[in-house]
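User: Please fill in residues for this 282-position structure.
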């Protein structure tokens, strides 16, 4: 269990990375996301997650420069899309991302989605090359199943540090979480609030109410109290952005954690794009 005195800058470690325990997601925001990311940085986020496919890299870069936060205090993640996983396309994607961000390197570079039509060995070689060239300090994958994680770890010449997957109380991700732990990977949790499905949950609200906490705050606390899980909530509302960071002054008991674990239900997967998603483990 995390010490309640910890802050958003507390880090989780894996294979040399020190990743802030909570991040701010920028998926599917407007390209003009500068004020939103600026609000996140002002609230105290130091871990910002973007991707080539999101169209938010330029806005993230502008917000970083305007914030005055020293680069060394930030942890920036971006991703290469599934259509760019051949080695040449991969390298061009990384170059474009860095240009859009206005950065010499990112802290973490991910393969955004697997692509069964492109050899994974080629993609892992390109991912490792980006790290060896100093364009990314660490590398990982996203939306990979257990079998794909096993194969990626075997094929990548550089250590992977995370698998970023959908993770929230309604979705059973026990198998992929076990795979991450077996390989010593951080599980980065996208959609940690179920894209708005959790705030009305009676169990989460019952747990949070005596503490003056919302269901969303309880769900995020549940995530960070597990071993090596880093949620990346997103919002365009400054009050909600700040609220998601206000989870370090309380802790959940074992019985409360178990009640939240029991919320898993079939049909709860949200990120399941046709033609891109692999055959999920659950």
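Assistant: Residues filled in for all 282 positions:
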């Amino acid at each position: 269990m995390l010490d309640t005195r910890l802050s958003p800058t507390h880090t989780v470690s894996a294979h040399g990375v020190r990743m802030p325990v909570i991040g701010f997601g920028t998926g599917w925001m407007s390209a003009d996301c500068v004020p939103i990311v600026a609000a996140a940085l002002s609230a105290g986020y130091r871990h910002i997650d973007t991707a080539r496919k999101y169209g938010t890299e330029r806005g993230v870069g502008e917000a970083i420069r305007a914030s005055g936060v020293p680069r060394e205090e930030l942890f920036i993640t971006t991703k290469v899309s599934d259509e760019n996983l051949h080695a040449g396309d991969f390298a061009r994607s990384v170059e474009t991302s860095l240009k859009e961000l206005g950065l010499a390197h990112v802290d973490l570079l991910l393969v955004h989605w697997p692509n069964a039509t492109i050899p994974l060995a080629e993609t892992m070689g390109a991912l490792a090359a980006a790290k060896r060239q100093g364009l990314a300090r660490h590398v990982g994958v996203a939306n990979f199943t257990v079998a794909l994680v096993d194969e990626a770890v075997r094929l990548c010449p550089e250590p992977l540090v995370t698998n970023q997957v959908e993770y929230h109380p309604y979705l059973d991700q026990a198998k992929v979480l076990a795979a991450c732990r077996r390989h010593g990977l951080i599980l980065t949790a996208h959609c940690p609030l179920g894209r708005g499905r959790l705030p009305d949950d009676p169990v989460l609200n019952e747990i949070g109410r005596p503490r003056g906490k919302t269901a969303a705050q309880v769900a995020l606390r549940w995530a960070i109290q597990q071993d090596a899980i880093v949620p990346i909530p997103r919002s365009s509302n400054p009050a909600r952005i700040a609220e998601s960071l206000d989870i370090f002054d309380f802790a959940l008991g074992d019985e409360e954690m178990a009640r939240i674990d029991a919320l898993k239900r079939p049909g709860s997967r949200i990120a399941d794009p046709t033609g891109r998603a692999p055959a999920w483990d659950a």
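For context: Residues 11-261 form a domain with the TIM Barrel fold (CATH 3.20.20.100).
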